[in-house]
Amino acid sequence: MQKGIELAKEAVEADHKQEWAQALELYKRALEYFSTHLKYDKNPKSREMISNKFKEYLDRAEYIKGILDGRQPAEEAPSGQNGAAAAKGRGGGGGGGDSKQEELDKMKSSLGSAILEEKPNVKWDDVAGLEGAKDALKEAVILPVKFPQFFTGKRKPWSGILLYGPPGTGKSYLAKAVATEADSTFFSVSSSDLVSKWLGESEKLVSSLFALAREKAPAIIFIDEIDALCSARGDNESEAARRIKTEFLVQMQGVGHGSDDKRVLMLGATNLPYALDQAVRRRFDKRIYIPLPEAPARASMFKIHLGDTPNSLTQAEFDELGRKTEGFSGSDIAVVVKDVLMQPVRKTQDATHFRRGADAAGKEILEPCSPGDQGAFPATLQTLADKGLAGKVHPPAISFRDFEKVLLRARPTVSPSDLAIYEKFTSEFGEEG
Predict the structure, then answer these.
(1) DSSP-based three-state secondary structure for 398
(2) What is the pLDDT of residues 330-374, one digit of tens each?
(3) Contact 312, 398 (CB under 8 A)
(4) For residue 371, with 0-12 CB atoms within 10 Å meaning exposed, 13-18 middle and 19 or more buried, which class applies?
(5) In contact, 28 and 112? CB cutoff 8 Å
(6) Distance CA 348, CA 356 (A)
(7) How far apart, in whole angstroms, are the C-alpha atoms of residue 322 and residue 68?
């Protein structure tokens, strides 16, 4: 709070001098500190005071932004201690419509962080398997932008796609590929972006999200764990939760309607498809099951996760690993590889003998070995460090045996009973990915 107050004072001083760009930046930074403080402040009086100041400074920042954009005329420097107070009198008696537009603009500006400015650099080829899901996403995302002439008359692109399946199967990773490959504005939204802000005005924020997406069309709204926002309605839920769902239903119904240049795709991901409200489920045109990876996809994942780490595995051994890990998800395989990557370090740490060798550049290195190996000499990691040779010690390359050792204790995180639920949902409402 103290840091926010200091920044707010600096902002007001810059505001007095009509240094608009500097004042706007300082107001923004002050608002970030006040916002963080509000998350943890449990004192009702303190919260109310800070919330009021927050709104005043936010109004002032919005007005200065309008001056910089040319939407507002420059004004006289504000008087009094609080520069934000001048925002209250702006516009010279505008009507209720103006204040409603200002409120909408204010909420849209708060959603700027949901726009993914930097692409994640995940290509379609980086996603192992899931050809059906990739084809559906290309149909919905790539073709309408690059070949709009394909979608004329009654042929319309998909307006909503739901990705569902067990945890760790690559639903969010697919969304990253969409963000990279699509020539569209990508909104990555979590429940906290829409629920924990604006103290009871969450449904207005939902409306602003869709309005902003239509402004920046073609656009994609991705909501991970959408069941947290749109779970089935019941008698025990709060009025606020019900209103958010209702607003989502209204907005999703209108997402796909309108001209092609206002196209917005709704992309949702969930591990709990049955938890979704049935009206929300209906508004997703395609519901695609993202299953556990097949053996060839698992073999590719092992290779991808190992990357350029020194190893002695052949393609046949990668294929064997794929066959040995039936029932493992993509995240399970990532955990296995993470454990395997530590195996050479553990060998080096426990070694009692080392030998001299050379790395790829021909420099001398020390690597652990068995006592009977040629050139072996007794030493431990600690004694080598004491002699100043720590920099020369290199762990051995990863072998197939390392994987076998780790797989003896590794277990998949998705049970057959879990899979049965997803397969039942697929037979009732979905399609294979």
Answers:
(1) strand
(2) 999 999 999 999 999 999 999 999 999 888 788 889 989 989 888
(3) yes
(4) exposed
(5) no
(6) 14
(7) 58
